[in-house]
């Protein structure tokens, strides 16, 4: 069942002539003020599961919009796989019945089996125009929760690679800007925004969208995005390469069921939902799962090859960590941090504890650039820079030189300054 939601200021229709030999509904006309108008196409194979899912989603969206009227409008132009007219009419009657059990407002179902003229004035907010698709096999699993991927990896390896510590492996704690930037890197500018109470609803909203869309769930910042016209394996490999250049050649093990739902198998044996693929279109996410998969693969490389893992500097949650050597140097460190924030970077100012401990904490935050400022740097207007992708190497730069380099990491997002005290 495919639905098109339009939040209308006003809507009206009038039957013109029969579209079937014996239309099951009588002719009629009606006009309304504010309403959620649901253009509905019943597809071959739709049954009670699709009806119940559709009714629940309509009720949820109506509540979100705070509308008191839903108009169900039969519309045979959202799919090429139409159910037979008798079945389609029965499903729409069942949809009306199911919706009355879930929605306390007024419901009007337009006549089925007639050519109709209609007029509509649609609102212009982000949720005013949404498309949905429901089948008998939609997954009802919830959005995955955040958890650190430390299973099977020794503390020694995690410590050596800078992956241990609070929050270091919890992509759910990363800002929504990071997740949104990943989506935009993969598919370009976002044209629409949706919401899915369950992962199945999010997949349906995304895969049926006619424009690029981000679908949020009840556990932000994780999101589903797409659709992209490609193969799911190619899409996932491309996403991994965006998350970290170290994963360009990775081809993770994927499982795709008959409904097009794709899961990835991690090194720890966890099956992560990461995509849905139908009719040559792919929607990716939840982004939390994609980040967890990437972290799992990076940890494996750290364990097997002894390399320091790193993320794409535009994706990493903390792009630069600024560390004053002594408390007397904190004012200069704060100036450097604020200059970076002004460029649009996510910056952590790390204070307290010993210098070595602060450097390790910066590594645990996945910081791409670690900046150390002491008395000498303050007097000479310089900084000591360590780049995560060049382990064991550091360089002294003037502040202007460093800011010029750091500017390349800014991708138009909001700058943020986080204070970390050990």
UniProtKB/TrEMBL annotation:
Threonyl-tRNA synthetase editing domain boundaries: 1-133
UniProt xrefs under CDD domains: ThrRS_anticodon
Protein name as it appears in the record: Misacylated tRNAthr hydrolase
Domain Anticodon-binding: 319-408
GO biological process, one term: threonyl-tRNA aminoacylation
Sorted UniProt keywords: Cytoplasm, Hydrolase, Protein biosynthesis
Domain of life (superkingdom): Archaea
Coiled coil (UniProt feature): none
GO cellular-component term (any): cytoplasm
Organism encoding this protein: Aeropyrum camini SY1 = JCM 12091
Secretion signal, residue range per the UniProt entry: none
InterPro entries, alphabetized: Anticodon-bd, Anticodon-bd_dom_sf, DTD-like_sf, Threonyl-tRNA_syn_edit_dom_arc, ThrRS_anticodon
């Amino acid at each position: 069942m495919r639905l098109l939601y339009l939040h209308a200021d006003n809507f009206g229709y009038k039957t013109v002539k029969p579209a079937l030999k014996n239309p099951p509904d009588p002719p009629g006309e009606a006009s309304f003020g504010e309403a959620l108008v649901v253009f509905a196409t019943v597809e071959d194979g739709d049954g009670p599961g699709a009806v119940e899912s559709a009714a629940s989603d309509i009720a949820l969206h109506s509540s979100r919009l705070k509308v008191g009227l839903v108009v169900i409008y039969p519309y045979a132009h959202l799919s090429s796989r139409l159910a037979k007219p008798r079945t389609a009419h029965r499903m729409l009657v069942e949809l009306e019945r199911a919706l009355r059990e879930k929605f306390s407002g007024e419901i009007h179902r337009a006549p089925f089996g007639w050519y109709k003229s209609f007029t509509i004035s649609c609102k212009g907010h982000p949720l005013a125009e949404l498309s949905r698709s429901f089948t008998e096999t939609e997954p009802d699993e919830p959005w995955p929760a955040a958890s650190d991927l430390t299973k099977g990896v020794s503390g020694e390896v995690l410590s050596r690679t800078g992956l241990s510590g609070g929050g270091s492996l919890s992509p759910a704690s990363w800002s929504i800007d990071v997740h949104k930037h990943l989506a935009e890197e993969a598919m370009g500018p976002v044209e629409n925004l949706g919401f899915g109470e369950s992962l199945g609803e999010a997949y349906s909203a995304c895969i049926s969208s006619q424009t690029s869309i981000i679908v949020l769930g009840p556990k932000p910042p994780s999101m589903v995005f797409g659709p992209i016209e490609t193969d799911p394996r190619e899409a996932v490999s491309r996403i991994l390469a965006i998350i970290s250049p170290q994963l360009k050649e990775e081809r993770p093990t994927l499982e795709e069921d008959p409904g097009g739902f794709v899961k990835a198998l991690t090194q720890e044996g966890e099956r992560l939902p990461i995509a849905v693929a139908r009719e040559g279109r792919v929607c990716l996410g939840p982004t939390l799962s994609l980040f967890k998969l990437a972290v799992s693969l990076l940890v494996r490389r750290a364990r097997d090859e002894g390399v320091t893992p790193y993320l794409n500097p535009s994706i990493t949650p903390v792009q630069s960590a600024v560390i004053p050597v002594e408390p007397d140097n904190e004012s200069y460190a704060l100036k450097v941090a604020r200059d970076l924030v002004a460029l649009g970077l996510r910056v952590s100012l790390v204070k307290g504890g010993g210098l070595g401990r602060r450097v390790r904490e910066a590594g645990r935050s996945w910081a791409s650039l670690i900046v150390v400022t002491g008395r000498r740097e303050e007097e000479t207007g310089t900084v000591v820079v360590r780049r995560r992708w060049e382990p064991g190497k550091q360089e002294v730069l003037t502040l202007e030189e460093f800011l010029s380099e750091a500017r390349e990491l800014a991708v138009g997002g909001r700058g943020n300054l986080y204070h970390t005290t050990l």
